[in-house]
Design a protein that fits this description.
By secondary structure, the chain is an alpha/beta fold. It contains 15 helices and eleven strands. Strands 1-4-5-8-9-10-11 form a seven-stranded parallel β-sheet. The protein is globular, with a radius of gyration of 19 Å. The protein starts with 7 loop residues before the first helix and ends with a helix.
Length: 356
Amino acid sequence: MTRLRNDTFLRALLREPTDYTPVWLMRQAGRYLPEYCETRRRAGSFLDLCKNPDLACEVTLQPLARYKLDAAILFSDILTVPDAMGLGLYFAEGEGPRFERPLRDEWEIRNLACPDPHAELQYVMDAVSVIRRALDNSVPLIGFSGSPWTLACYMVEGASSSDYRRIKTLAYSRPDLLHHILEVTARAVTAYLNAQIESGAQAVMVFDSWGGVLSEAAYHEFSLPYMQQVVSGLIKEREGRRVPNIVFTKGGGLWLESIAAIGADAVGLDWTMDIGRARALVGDRVAIQGNLDPSILFGDNEIIAAEARRVLDQFGPNPGHVFNLGHGISQFTSPDAVSVLIDTVHSHGRAIRSLA
């Protein structure tokens, strides 16, 4: 077994007792850090940064150099999988990600195929390996992917959307075609995450960023079953220890009990639901990750500390809590605010654990 100097995050995901509440932040390597902005400038573009394993390692480690975080997360993008499927990912200045060849015609959908993660996506696996070596067993490395539904949204819409008109039209006019996209994408995501695990990722997370735009019936048809398919196909043990997995649907609090039943080790929670109520609903079936509103980091230090303590108090001294934001950290966040948050989580989380 590979011995980590700090495995608190992994033990919390497996609902084992920990001395304190571990913390990491979604988008912890990002534009709020001046050192990240400098590395991105040197890379030339966001995609060039993602596709350069050494630079991806550099930005992955930057937040750990500043803060006492309990996990690193691979620096990459959720859209690497559809890009490898041939859809032509690019980033328009000020407009976010776009695809040159979104799925429009039935023949394009029928021709969709899983990429080989050790061919088209080898640069991601190389980054995982480089980062693991650089971490030197200090903290665990998280790998990740978008969920099949979220990736399908981008693949059909061609970009971000305010109303998801194209993919919802497909869902209700040709559900057979959407299910085909989701089935192929679920197999691709499973292979992609397993390749990350084989390359050194010690936990993996599935980001269902757009699951919350669906109705309850549609979520249980087009999103949740495909996340369950991914989870069931994941490698569960590597290097002599369990490889935990996390699923996260933004806006999915209404379906928390259903999400907790798909076999994942942990469920991410956004900030719209009380974390104590969430734990009461799922009991000890899964760990819970979350769930501070990222906008609280725009408040003063006293507010940040008070709101962090509130989340910890709501969860209580029970095992199985990984502190995180309810979504990604904003690029406008002060790095000093993050210091206040992490210090508070560690100190107050330790005090709470002493009551267990």
